[in-house]
């Protein structure tokens, strides 16, 4: 056991499994770069065997990111494991994470396998993976609801086969902190070779206790790896949130006494990047990264903080990336200042041509908006990324008319595979009219399950950031669009969601 706590980020795998959170290969690479800046120890880049897109994303990240270990998930079979190893070939440090369910419920109802068959398959998978890479993690899926005797048998056997990390998932978020911590401790105490592996926690947030359970797994259970995601992104209620676990361990070093490799100053940029890429908005009162996390509204608190900061603040806002000076650039800012700000925000562009294109869009925005904030730059870069991906639909222009007592009308120009088309419609409001104008032409038949508008930097002068969630034939996607005009932002978000619906992502579900 070491005194270092390993941070294993699974935003790009478990986080991405959240309906609507799917990301393109380039978006994943951009987030992986930010995770590397954060100095995350292990990045789970995807599930290579689940689709060609995931394979390519894992491969690209393995070939590009050099400081973090790159991991691919794989079910416990030779084909999945071989695909993972192939995708990870270019990595400086590669890890295969193989899993199979061990709870009676999952084995019987989902896998239709006997415990003995699961035992053999787990052993065989770890043996096979260890022939391909040195670093092999094994997860008994639904581990927390598994019979402890059976779990001890399986885990002892996979450690013998060479598993270097044992992860104990609370797959359905059923655990309670003390019970989860003791469960882990019990396994470690009973398994004779438990000291040959690093123990890891992986908690889902269905009862809102993912972070508390993970911390108990560390403190009581002796885990030295935590699996987590930026903003707690993930299926259903999500996963353990990286920013919360990191800041808990850092702020309460007196209690946990553990070292972390994380450079927390990049947390906020990572949070915004993930939120803007996936369209999953961060709630204002979210710990560490929410807009109100360091805001003191009440007079008593403000007075206290002015007299002595630590009266009401247990961490410093700037230590997680909040800057006092939020206005960064304006109309007169040059290309160098823009490029430097991109670097400070952790955005790496592939080529000078890409920087030029982003700078041109920045200038356009600066003509319409006097103060450009970090959030504006990140939104602009997200959009730039989308354009770079050569999507099927792209926004060109929009005009709309609305007047009290009249039904609003909109007409829109957009491109379909580079060819300009026009659409017009009326609607209940200008946004409704604009989206109906697009739909009149595209005829996607998709159902809108969420529409939300957020002021990127807090005032009416800011850009509106719109998220549109569409559902069609069992697929759910999120589209995000930003513009000072929220009707335009809505049209961009709708087109972005349609683009995602078009991209055929036939993938195997990790827990399927
Ligand atoms: O929650 C879970 O059980 C998982 C496994 C695949 C590790 O994500
Ligand atoms: Zn999970």
Mean pLDDT: 92
Largest sheet: 8 strands, parallel, barrel
Q: Tell me the CATH superfamily of the largest domain.
A: Aldolase class I
Biggest β-sheet: strands ordered side by side in the sheet: 1-2-3-4-5-6-7-8
Structural class by helix and strand composition? alpha/beta
Number of helices: 17
The CATH topology of the largest domain is given as TIM Barrel
Provide the domain count: 4
The 3D shape can be described as globular
Architecture per CATH nomenclature, i.e. the level-2 architecture of the largest domain: Alpha-Beta Barrel
The low-pLDDT segments are: none
Binned strand content: 15-25%
Total E-strand runs: 16
| Bound compounds | 3-methyl-2-oxobutanoic acid, zinc ion
Task: Determine and state the CATH class of the largest domain.
Answer: Alpha Beta
Distance between the termini: 33 Å
Description:
- The protein has an eight-stranded parallel β-barrel, surrounded by nine helices.
- It has four domains: about 5-280, Aldolase class I (TIM Barrel, Alpha-Beta Barrel); about 295-320, no CATH class; about 325-385; about 390-500, 2-Layer Sandwich (Double Stranded RNA Binding Domain), CATH 3.30.160.
- A hairpin with a 2-residue loop joins strand 15 and strand 16.
- It has helices at about 25-35, 50-65, 80-85, 105-110, 115-130, 150-160, 175-190, 210-220, 240-250, 255, 265-280, 300-305, 335-345, 350-370, 375-390, 430-440, 485-500; strands spanning about 5-10, 40-45, 70-75, 95-100, 135-140, 165-170, 200-205, 225-230, 325-330, 370-375, 395-400, 410-415, 420-425, 445-455, 465-470, 475-485.
- Helix 7 runs parallel beside helix 8.
- It is an alpha/beta fold.
- The chain contains 17 helices and 16 strands.
């Amino acid at each position: 056991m070491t005194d270092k706590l390993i941070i294993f980020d699974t935003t790009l795998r478990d986080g991405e499994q959240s309906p609507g959170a799917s990301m393109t290969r380039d978006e994943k690479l951009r987030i992986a770069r930010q995770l590397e800046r954060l100095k995350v120890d292990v990045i789970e880049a995807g599930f290579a065997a689940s689709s060609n897109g995931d394979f390519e994303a894992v491969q690209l990240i393995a070939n590009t990111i050099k400081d973090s270990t790159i991991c691919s998930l794989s079910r416990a079979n030779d084909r999945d494991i071989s695909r993972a190893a192939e995708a990870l070939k270019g990595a400086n440090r590669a890890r295969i994470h193989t899993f199979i369910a061990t709870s009676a419920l999952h084995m019987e109802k989902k896998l239709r396998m006997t415990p003995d068959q699961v035992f053999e398959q787990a052993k065989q998978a770890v043996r096979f993976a260890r022939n391909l890479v040195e670093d092999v993690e094994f997860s008994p899926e639904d581990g927390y609801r598994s019979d402890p005797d059976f779990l001890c048998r399986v885990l002892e056997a996979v450690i013998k086969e060479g598993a270097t990390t044992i992860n104990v998932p609370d797959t359905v978020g059923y655990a309670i902190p003390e019970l989860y911590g003791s469960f882990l401790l019990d396994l470690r105490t009973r398994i004779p070779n438990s000291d040959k592996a690093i123990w890891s926690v992986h908690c889902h947030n269905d009862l809102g206790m993912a972070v508390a359970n993970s911390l108990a797994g560390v403190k009581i259970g002796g885990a030295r790896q935590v699996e987590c995601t930026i903003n707690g992104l993930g299926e259903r209620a999500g996963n353990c949130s990286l920013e919360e676990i990191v800041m808990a361990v850092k702020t309460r070093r007196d209690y946990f006494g553990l070292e972390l490799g994380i450079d927390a100053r990049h947390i906020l940029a990572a949070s915004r990047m993930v939120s803007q890429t996936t369209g999953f908005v961060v709630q204002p009162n979210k710990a560490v990264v929410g807009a109100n996390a360091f805001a003191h509204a009440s007079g008593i608190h403000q007075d206290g903080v002015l007299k002595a900061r630590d009266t009401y603040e247990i961490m410093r806002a700037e230590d997680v990336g909040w800057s006092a000076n939020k206005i960064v650039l304006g109309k007169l800012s040059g290309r160098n200042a823009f490029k430097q700000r991109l670097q400070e925000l952790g955005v790496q562009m592939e080529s000078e041509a890409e920087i030029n294109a982003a700078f041109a869009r920045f200038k356009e925005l600066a003509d319409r908006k006097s103060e450009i904030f970090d959030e504006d730059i990140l939104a602009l870069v997200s959009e730039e990324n989308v354009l770079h991906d050569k999507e099927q639909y792209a926004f060109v222009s929009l005009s709309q008319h609305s007047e009290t007592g009249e039904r609003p009308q909109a007409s829109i120009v957009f491109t379909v595979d580079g060819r300009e088309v026009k659409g017009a419609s009326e609607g209940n409001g200008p946004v409704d009219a604009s989206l109906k104008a697009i739909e009149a032409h595209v005829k996607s038949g998709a159902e809108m399950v969420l529409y939300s508008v957020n002021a990127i930097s807090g005032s009416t002068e800011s850009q509106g950031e719109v998220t549109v969630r569409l559902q069609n034939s069992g697929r759910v996607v999120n589209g995000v669009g930003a513009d000072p005009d929220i009707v335009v932002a809505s049209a961009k978000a709708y087109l972005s969601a349609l683009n995602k619906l078009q991209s055929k992502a036939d993938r195997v579900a990790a827990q399927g």
